[in-house]
Amino acid sequence: MALGASFRINRVLCDSGFYTIEFIEHLELNRLTYIISVPISHTIQREILQVKQWHTVSKGVEVGEFVFQHYDHKWTKPRRYVVVRQSISKRPKSLGKQPSLFKDLIDWSQYRISVMITNDLLSLPEEIWRRYRPRANDENVIKDLKEGYSFETFNVNNFWATEAVLTMIALVFHNLIVYLNRTILNPHQSQEQLTTLRHKYFTLPGQLGSGGRNYVLRLSVQGRKMRAKIISVIRRISMITHRLNCIAVDQ
Asked: Where are the beta strands (DSSP E) in 125-171?
């Protein structure tokens, strides 16, 4: 494996496209813990309606669970299902779907529903949900790699060379940008994608000159607020322990 012999899979998180008994049994055979999103069919909806105990996780979010086995002979045993329902009146931007059978039910019409199947029998339902939630950001990461890093345009006419370039981008450059985002550029607010960071911080006119025995990069920044932001960013970078010791800031 490219990640090395010591690499081990800790948990498998999948969307509903992987909700097949063949894949689930493969994971169980290899003793892998999984959490997989479940398509909310009429059969699953009827099971959800039977859930009597709901635990409030946060404002407008409740979790429950049930044990279920499909009637298909391939499904040889019952498995654990975790249900999350979110009130759109309290959380207008709630994720999940409104099942077709629930639209005409007064007690359920204001909820968005998500369902997961798991072989983790020890964790609480809310813990299952929290572990699965980061998976929902995968699409945004892929979009950022394609649009921000031009991931889809790299092709050096050789499979292994192309893989090496893409791996370098994904593991090194992407992680570097994430680190800068979280610790330097936006430590106390939502993270910005590379396309935004490029226009704000990276695409700036400048001139490389000298000052005494040192090279000096003179940047042209419009506006006092943006100028103060750039100076603050450079100062934070200069305080990073693992760096080249060549950064100085001059207003």
From this structure: none
